[in-house]
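Practice problem. Given the sequence and the SMILES for zinc ion, write out the predicted structure.
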Amino acid sequence: MFDVKLVHGSVLDGTGKPAFRADVGLVGDRIVEVGDLGAAEARLVLEAEHRVVCPGFIDAHSHSDAYLLIEPSAASKIYQGITSEVIGNCGSSAAPRLGAAQIPSDWRTHTYPGEWRTVAEYRRLLESVRPAVNVVALVGHNVLRASVMGYEGRAARTDEIQVMERLLERSLDEGGRGLSTGLIYPPGMYATAEELLALAAVVARRGGVYTSHMRSESSGLLDALKETIGIGRQTGVRVQVSHLKTSGRTNWHLVEAALELMEGARREGLAVAADRYPYTASCTDLDVIFPNWATEGGREAELGRLRDPSLRARLRDELLATRPERAWGSITIGSTSEANVRFRGMPLEQVAEELGLEPVDAALYLIESDQLATSAFFQGMSEANLWRILGQPYVMLGSDASLRAPWGPLSRDFPHPRAYGSFPRFLRAALDGKTVPPAEAVRKMTSLPAGHFGLRERGVLAKGHYADVIVFDPGTLRDRATYSEPHQLSEGVIHMLVNGQVTIRDGSLTGERHGIWL
Ligand SMILES: [Zn+2]
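Answer key:
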């Protein structure tokens, strides 16, 4: 007697093997049979005729840390078929947050169901809200560093690195599975090779993963890749290049050299992988365009410089001198504070026109009046390179987004559409013959990340494995979120089970939430 039986489906088991027809039987949180289960009884039978049954997707690059506490349904992710999220990326995790460490501006505007500082406290709070997805947590280097030495823009002393190592060890003991860096953001950008190697070595000893938003994704891409791969070579840590890309038209030609570096490292036997979202615009805080001196020292210091007329003038001059005229045209405003809602989704040049300002001044105006909470879309990637990168066998899918929901407090900002659409968008392209075959696409979203993060008995639809399973309709599966209307759930995931419990049934949330800390 099964608890659940998925019948008549076409199974893509996550290994990359072609689809085969089979029923799937579940008992408790496990898959117990895959085959012809025609006669066997089950408490619940879910029809999968003309549909595909596969393992739940693993979002190899997520930022849902804080938002899982507010919207544990994880709606924007669940509707993409995602059953596990790897949180804490780009140096920016919710925990640990000791000393002067602060959560990012966009997380600060919300109310949370409790307080947390350490990874253990975050985990307890997260478990108390019962998230719908499983969670794999990385320790963010920026908060780790700020916990020890604040937001000072300088290299760490040896004794400070040692304190970071201890805090990292403790955070991994409390359930972290690796370290993420965000080396374009303060204060991570001030880390020396010595600091990164010492911390990566801690992760390597525990078999964890080192993910990196590297120092450059544009003209300095190849050097940044060499640094990242070198950390894997010197420490033995498993490496994941975050959102691998060639940013800026003048750097698009670097793609082949970048892939050659990745392949060379893999031929050497290094465990090097990457993640990518299937869009050509990036999204981050608008103040990422500022030179380092302007963001040093934490948010109060940065806001203080914007209020100081002479420093603001210096910043303006530098922005004009370092950014080509046309670069302003590649920026579209995303989230803002309530005061600037009318500018959401609007090209910066249009914002400037409406305000009667130059684009540079419009950017400074928004950043200051939004108290650093302005996000922006930067149109700068090549479509051809996107598919070239996604086609590599070691590239996993990662949304690079916090979850959202079209209702409640998380419906009020203006996210990149990748928060709602990444996985169905990639799978749709595979089903339509525009990228790798569907079996390979599913492998890149299931067994590949499961193996990379060491998630045992997940990522493959097989007897004995955990029952993270989805059923999707290959005819209707699609993403709906756009840059102008981002809060749109994806379509086509018909049923979803997380740890054996039905989370989506006939296309609707059941209200069950059974994700666990992995
Ligand atoms: Zn990043």
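Check your answer against the key. The pocket of zinc ion is lined by residues 90, 182, 213, 242-243, 400 (CB under 6 Å).
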